[in-house]
C-alpha cells in the first residue's frame, strides 16, 4: 500500500512539474517570443530521467523515442519550409519544447499534439486577423499551442 501511494505521489509531483513548466514556457513565449533553454532543457532531461527510474508517465524507451521524434518532426517541417521560402518558419525552442513533451508523453501522441496545436494556432491567428490586432504576416508563438495541445491530449 505504501509503495502504491509513493508511486502516485511521484506521478502527481511529475505532473505538477510538467504542467507548471508548460505554463511558464507559454507565458514567456507569449511575452518574448522565446522558449528559453534554461526551462526546455531541464524539462527534457527530467522527463527522460524520471522515465528511466519508473517515476515518469511512460517507460524509458518511449521517452527517448518521443524526445527524438518530437525534435526531428519540427526540424523537418522547418527545414522543408526553409527549402521553399529560404527563411526560418519557427524557432529551435519549438523543436526543443516538442522534444521535452515527447520525453514526458512518448512518441505516440505527438501527431495528435501537432494536429491540435496547429488547428488551435490557425484559429487564433484568424481571430487575431478578424479583430485586427496584428497583421497576419506577423509571427505568432507556437509554444503556447504545443503546451495547450499537450495538456488536452494528456487529459483526454
Tally of individual helices: 6
The separation of the N and C termini measures 28 Å
Largest sheet: none
Helix content: over 70%
Description:
The protein is 78% helix and 0% strand. With 156 residues, the chain is an all-alpha fold. It has one domain. Helix 1 (2-32) runs antiparallel to helix 2, helix 1 runs antiparallel to helix 6 (143-155) and helix 4 packs parallel to helix 6 (143-155). The longest helix is centred in the N-terminal third of the chain and has 31 residues, at 2-32. The radius of gyration is 16 Å and the shape is globular. 32% of the residues are buried. The model has no long low-confidence stretch (mean pLDDT 92).
List the helices and strands and how they pair.
Elements: H1 2-32, H2 37-52, H3 60-85, H4 92-105, H5 110-131, H6 143-155
Features:
156 residues; mainly alpha; 6 helices; globular
Task: Summarize the structure in short.
The protein has 156 residues and is an all-alpha fold.
Amino acid at each position: 500500500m505504501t509503495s502504491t501511494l509513493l508511486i502516485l505521489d511521484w506521478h502527481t509531483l511529475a505532473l505538477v512539474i510538467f504542467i507548471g513548466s508548460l505554463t511558464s514556457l507559454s507565458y514567456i513565449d507569449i511575452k518574448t517570443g522565446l522558449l528559453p533553454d534554461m526551462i526546455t532543457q531541464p524539462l527534457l532531461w527530467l522527463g527522460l530521467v524520471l522515465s528511466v527510474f519508473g517515476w515518469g508517465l511512460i517507460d524509458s524507451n518511449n521517452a527517448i523515442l518521443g524526445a527524438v521524434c518530437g525534435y526531428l518532426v519540427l526540424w523537418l517541417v522547418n527545414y522543408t519550409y526553409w527549402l521553399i521560402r529560404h527563411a526560418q518558419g519557427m524557432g529551435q525552442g519549438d523543436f526543443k519544447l516538442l522534444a521535452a513533451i515527447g520525453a514526458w508523453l512518448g512518441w505516440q501522441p505527438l501527431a495528435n499534439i501537432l494536429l491540435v496545436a496547429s488547428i488551435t494556432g490557425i484559429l487564433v491567428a484568424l481571430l487575431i486577423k478578424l479583430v485586427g490586432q496584428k497583421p497576419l504576416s506577423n509571427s505568432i508563438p507556437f509554444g503556447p499551442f504545443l503546451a495547450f495541445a499537450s495538456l488536452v491530449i494528456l487529459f483526454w
